[in-house]
C-alpha cells in the first residue's frame, strides 16, 4: 500500500492547494540543462527507479547541475538542514524552536564553518562554488512550495551553508558527551552505573580488527548502521562485493539523494547529501566504499569553577570568559538578543546552581577538511588514493570499507581521534587547568585499518574498531550482536551475490529477543496469556509479530525503580523542548540506554521484579493496542504518517505531500 492510498488526505490536500494557487503545477524536468555558469549544456536522465544521472562536460559542470537538481527537488530540506546547526530554525518556524536554537548558538558553529572555509582545497572550493551557483538558480526559478505556506522566500544558498551541513550531520553522529554528562549526573550510583556503563556479560566482543582484545566502550547506542565487504573467494562472480545500509532516523524526504555524476575525470554514483556536491557513499569506475559511524572520544566536558560572573582561575593565571551577543530571530515575535559565553576549553553549554560553568570541547571546533577528502575520494583509483583522501577526513569519524576493480578489499577508520595524556575522561573533567585538555591526536597511520585480510571478510556494524591490545581509544560502540550475525551469514556461503547481500540487509534476527522469550516461557511469574504468544518465537523481529513489542514493554517495565527514576531525569532541567525530540540532545537519560536494555534485563533476570514488570507491560500494551496482546504487532499500531519537516510549524503544511522526483520530458 503506498502513502497516497494509506493516507488519502495527502492527495486531496495537494489537489486543493493546487486549485487555490498555493502549489504551482508540476513541471517536467528538462532533459537538457542550460544554466548560467555551465561551459556547455548538461544532460539529465532518470532511470526506472527515478535516480538521476547527470552527464556534463567537466566535473565543475556536473557539480553545478547537481546543485540545481538538489535545489529544485530538495530546496526546503536543504534550508532546514543549514538552519539546524546554525541555530536559525525559529526564524522559519516560530517560538517553538527557540530552545533548540539557543543551544546550537552556544556552539558557535557558524564561526567554525568560516574557519573551515579557509582550509578548503582548490578542488573543493571550485566544487562548492559551482554547486552553489546551481542551487541558487533553482531557488530563484523554482522555490520550494513549503515557502508558500510560510509566506517566505528562500534565502540564497551560501558556500558556507555546505559546511554547516557537515556540522549538522556530524553533531547528530557525535554524542559521547551525553554519556560523560550522564556519568557525572547519575552514574555515580552503582546501580545506575551498572545499567548505563558496566560491561555486560555474554555479549560478543567482536572488533573490526580481529584478535585485539576487549574494547574500551562508554555507553550504549540506540540506532546503527552496517557495512561489509567480501573478497572474490566469497562471491559467485569471483569479484569483491560491498554493501552498506546507513541507518539514520526516518525522514521525509530521506536525508540521502541517489545520483550519478559524469564529467571529464569524474564518474561516480551513489548517495549524495542535499546541500553538498559529490557522492558521500558509492562507487566510481575504480573503487567502491561504504561508511558506518564510529562515535570515538571526540568530545569532552569541563567544569569551570568561577570566581565571579566572568573570571576564573586557569592553572596559576586569571582567565576570563569571552562574551558574544547572539541574535535569535523568531517568526512572529521580536528578536531575542542573548549573551553566550566561550572559555579556553570551548563554549559554555550549561551553568550549574553554584555558578560553575560546563564547557564542551569537540573536534568540530577547528578547521574541518572533510570536503577536501570527499572530492578526492570521488575520483580515487586505488587503495593508496583512497587512504590519501581520508587523511583529510576530520568529522564525523567513520568506518570506511573498500573494494576495487583489481580485486582488493580494505577498511580504514577516518577522522580525528584525540588523545589525553592521563587517559580518556569518563565524566566531566577539571576545567581550571590546561592539563586536562587533549594533548595530541592519534596519527592517521595508527588509526585502525585492514587491507586484504586473510579470511576475505570485513564487517563493521558500529562495533568497536579495535580492542585494548590494538589501537585503544574510548568510543560508544554497539554490543556486537549485529556484527556477529553479519559475519556468520557471510562466512556461511562462498557464493554471495546481490540477492544474498539484500537478504542479509533485511535479516531481522535478534539474539537478545530470542533469549528473553525463552526465559519468560519457563518463568513461573509469566502470565498465562503471554505463553501462547511467546511459544515458538525464533528471535525474528518481524513487523507482523507481537512478540518484539511485548518483550520491549517488559524490558522497560523491569528496570529497577532507582534506575528508572535516574534515567527519567532530563539532561538539563532548565532546558525544556516544546515536544519530545525537539532539542539537539536526548530528552532524558533513557536515551542513553540504547541497545543495552535487553541484554541487561537478561543478565539481571532472576533479581528483577518480574511479576510487577509483566503487569505493567500488560497494562501499557493494552492501553496502546487494545485488549488482545496477540495483536500487539508494530504493523497494528496507530498509523502516524511521516511528513515534511515543516510539520513543526503546525500549519496546514502538515498535510503537504508531493512526489520527490518530477517527470522528465
UniProtKB/TrEMBL annotation:
GO BP terms in the entry: antibiotic biosynthetic process
UniProt feature coiled coil, ranges: none
Highest taxon of source: Bacteria
Keywords: Calcium, Hydrolase, Metal-binding, Zymogen
Active site residues according to the UniProt entry: 225 (nucleophile)
Molecular function GO terms recorded: hydrolase activity, acting on carbon-nitrogen (but not peptide) bonds, in linear amides; metal ion binding
Native source organism of the sequence: Sulfobacillus harzensis
Cofactor binding description: Binds 1 Ca(2+) ion per dimer.
CDD domains reported in the protein's UniProt record: Ntn_PGA_like
Protein family: Belongs to the peptidase S45 family.
Residues that, per the record, bind Ca(2+): 297, 300
Protein name: Penicillin acylase family protein
